[in-house]
Design goal:
- With about 220 residues, this protein is an alpha/beta fold.
- It has seven helices and eleven strands.
- The strands form two sheets. Strands 6-7-5-4-8-9-11-10 form an eight-stranded mixed sheet, sandwiched between helices. Strands 1-2-3 form a three-stranded antiparallel sheet, with no helix packed on it.
Length: about 220
């Protein structure tokens, strides 16, 4: 898969749409509320937070999810540092990223952190209580080269129908191999093929109510 910068159009002047995948970067209704429902609650956070907790994400996009996690880390009174590793094939231009995050004043102050991490791929960028690393390129190639394991995964690629490369059984098996015992994964997708691939990779898979008009989503837990 050839990589390059994200190509973005705008819905109502505030919601970025990927022209390559014809899919929005976050919910047209409320992107931050969607993040909290799907990725934070879906991974049972903040209850599972501990110093050194590691989040990994397929599809960094605007960085909204990582910044929402950092906000929750702070609001829930955690100590130590939250670690984040993101995998992104088509990084968003800094101007687009800042424009997208400006819609969410609660987290928009973190745009500098996301921009710095995207500008220094593979380098860990520290900002107080967070350390963020973003790997640029096809996740099928970059994930196997990562030596870490995540306590929680945000599976946030564009929809399986429009971006099937981020939802293959091989890639989700790689996610499982890079998940700590007792670790978890969450995604807005309830596609049967995604749930089956996660189960075949060793996760215990559960369907939960989705966000907004989406009936269902998927959560998965790796046995201890």
């Amino acid at each position: 898969m050839a990589n390059g910068q994200a190509e973005v159009d705008w819905r109502d002047g505030r919601v970025p749409i990927s022209t390559r995948f014809d899919d929005p970067y976050f919910s047209l209704e409320d992107g931050l509320a969607e993040t909290r429902h799907v990725f934070l609650q879906g991974n049972d956070l903040p209850a599972r937070f501990r110093p050194g907790f590691t989040i990994a994400e397929l599809g960094v996009g605007t960085g909204l999810n990582l910044l929402a996690a950092r906000l929750l880390w702070r609001e829930s009174g955690q100590t130590g540092r939250l670690h984040y590793v993101g995998f992104e094939a088509y990084p968003m231009a800094e101007a687009d990223l800042r424009r997208a995050l400006s819609a969410f004043p609660e987290v928009s102050d973190g745009a500098d952190l996301v921009a710095r991490a995207l500008a220094q791929p593979g380098t860990t960028v520290e900002d107080g209580d967070m350390a963020a690393t973003i790997l640029i390129g096809d996740a099928a190639r970059t994930l196997p080269g990562w030596s870490g394991r995540a306590d929680a995964w945000f599976l946030d690629g564009f929809s399986p129908a429009k971006n099937p490369g981020l939802w293959t059984p091989d890639l989700l098996a790689g996610v499982a191999r890079h998940t700590a015992p007792g670790g978890s994964a969450a995604t807005y997708s309830a596609a049967g093929a995604v749930r089956r691939a996660l189960a075949e990779a060793g996760f215990q898979v559960e369907r939960r109510p989705g966000f907004g008009r989406k009936r269902h989503m998927t959560v998965a837990r790796m046995p201890e």
